[in-house]
Design goal:
280 residues; mainly alpha; 12 helices; elongated
Length: 280
């Protein structure tokens, strides 16, 4: 065999000094993707928590959401421009989560998993719905608040009706009911996959299922806005949302600290063979 033939064979097999082995290339790409995904989960959870704390201290959120227009709109107008920007920050820090949710199947080496693929679209949609709920405080509520505080009794009654309509539709229905249900659906599906396949530590899946169940109990408070007398656990929103946010941050940290998945480290031929095998 000539030197040129040997070099050609080495390049074809990925064993030559100038050739990049498929598993090495995949591992390098997977590391960057893993850091991006894990980092964005952590950054999104922490940034949203910080914005929510400011909103809670300056606007009594989320308790004020269940107050009538006569309480909410004057309080919002009194908050001025800084309150509008706080809502803006709260909305877009939560929106960060859409990116790592979409990247997660590739990081876990399960892009062909139909359950995870469906859950990914569900999770991303939940972020969009929540974003609508948050951003109405930036684009819809300010003119209503100005009209309310400067208007006469008839104007206030009209604005109050408009406030209730947009609040129930954009807030209770889209942002809270559908947004939270879809977010819970994403986390429950992901946790079930984690528990079944051990693609991430089992404790993360079990913990995620528990906090998702707690978060689901907050639906009672939302349904009570449409069905008076519906059972409500007052702490469900605080405990559920806080626990879910901590779990999302823990998911990001776990992804950051965990080595590349076997699917990313195996040679391309082995990956293709594993993909072709039937799955239980």
């Amino acid at each position: 065999m000539t030197t040129q033939d040997a070099a050609t064979r080495n390049v074809a097999e990925g064993t030559g000094s100038g050739a990049a082995r498929p598993d090495m290339a995949l591992t390098g790409a997977g590391r960057g993707l893993r850091w991006t995904t894990g980092g964005l989960f952590v950054a999104g959870a922490v940034a949203f928590a910080a914005a929510a704390m400011v909103l809670s201290s300056t606007f009594n959120w989320p308790d004020i959401l269940r107050e009538p227009a006569s309480v909410v709109l004057p309080a919002f107008a009194g908050g001025g421009t800084s309150l509008v920007w706080t809502w803006f920050a709260t909305a877009w820090t939560y929106a960060i989560l859409a990116v790592p949710i979409l990247l997660l199947p590739a990081v876990l080496g399960r892009r062909d998993d139909p359950a995870l693929r469906a859950a990914t679209y569900v999770g991303a949609t939940s972020v969009v719905l929540a974003l609508i709920g948050f951003l109405r405080w930036v684009f819809v509520v300010p003119p209503l608040a100005r009209s309310y505080v400067t208007g006469d009794a008839i104007t206030q009654a009209s604005v109050g009706a408009a406030w209730t309509a947009q609040h129930q539709y954009g807030g209770a229905l889209l942002g809270e009911h559908l947004g939270q249900l879809l977010a819970i659906g994403w986390s429950v599906t992901l946790c079930a996959i984690i528990v079944r396949t051990r693609v991430l530590p089992r404790w993360l899946g079990v913990t995620g299922l528990a906090v998702s169940a707690l978060y689901l109990l907050n639906q009672g408070d939302i349904l009570a806005t449409a069905v008076p007398g519906f059972p409500v656990w007052d702490l469900a929103g605080l405990v559920g949302s806080t626990g879910w946010g901590i779990w999302v941050a823990a998911l990001g940290v776990t992804i950051l600290l965990r080595p590349a998945t076997p699917a990313l480290r195996r040679p391309a031929t082995a990956t293709r063979a594993a993909t072709a095998e039937p799955r239980s």
